[in-house]
Amino acid sequence: xxxxxxxxxxxxxxxxxxxxxxxxxxxxxxxxxxxxxxxxxxxxxxxxxxxxxxxxxxxxxxxxxxxxxxxxxxxxxxxxxxxxxxxxxxxxxxxxxxxxxxxxxxxxxxxxxxxxxxxxxxxxxxxxxxxxxxxxxxxxxxxxxxxxxxxxxxxxxxxxxxxxxxxxxxxxxxxxxxxxxxxxxxxxxxxxxxxxxxxxxxxxxxxxxxxxxxxxxxxxxxxxxxxxxxxxxxxxxxxxxxxxxxxxxxxxxxxxxxxxxxxxxxxxxxxxxxxxxxxxxxxxxxxxxxxxxxxxxxxxxxxxxxxxxxxxxxxxxxxxxxxxxxxxxxxxxxxxxxxxxxx
Length: 343
What we know:
By secondary structure, the protein is an alpha/beta fold. The chain has helices spanning 13-24, 65-68, 85-98, 111-114, 161-170, 189-193, 213-218, 303-318, 326-342, and strands at 5-9, 28-33, 105-107, 119-122, 136-139, 154-157, 178-181, 223-225, 228-231, 236-238, 243-244, 249-252, 256-259, 269-270, 273-274.
């Protein structure tokens, strides 16, 4: 019997485990990676490639190694419970070597695979008039270390995990003030702890995990503000009428938007959301020949979820599992979206 060949796009976390799942089911994977190495997001680079998400140098994963590891390859005992990004990448390299995954990966594929890459678009909130601001401003994707902000006044917009980490880290070098701004979509458990006023319920967004942030706030090293209404050349004016003058830099830790322009007929993104059956399969395809692995924001690590999704997808590709009818899948997707909206 002829083996089915499966194209895996990207050699990051989800790509690596998808290759492994293909091999487990006797399928023939070929992985296309447009860069020169594996690891995806977890491969730190001072100058990341265009259109690719990126981490900063100090990132430590906020999920324990027991909860983030793949089921068939535990993280070594001598690794710390919460690992630095370099150790996370080392683990992925060990995983790839253990299961001989590298021979199925084509690196530096170039323009051919460029159209298949998960597209990341930074949101710079131009509606706030940031173009008027004369200081530095950029997305957290381009942040690498705090030294460049020594002695400066900095605003970090966003209080997710990246925003909190950046605020804490920069507060060690900045002059007197880090203003940690809370856009409306970003509610966290921390905001409840500090009795912030927001329009969202608890757990309606991905929770922030940062042990140092409360201490930096109560010591005055991080100053918490509300939504930014507008920027001037040197200041930020907030919705409550207050303002912060002589600002040197603004960092937008406001997340990413994504798109699949090469799959417009089968995969549509509306308001940064995508309709997939069980978060994996587009319901509109005549045959289940496409699976989106890892496009989910869990309360925890993505690695085990990507592994489970990969197992299911490869069993569907092999014909061991079948999907419901298109109408049943759409009904299930609608129901899931309605339940999520109520939370």
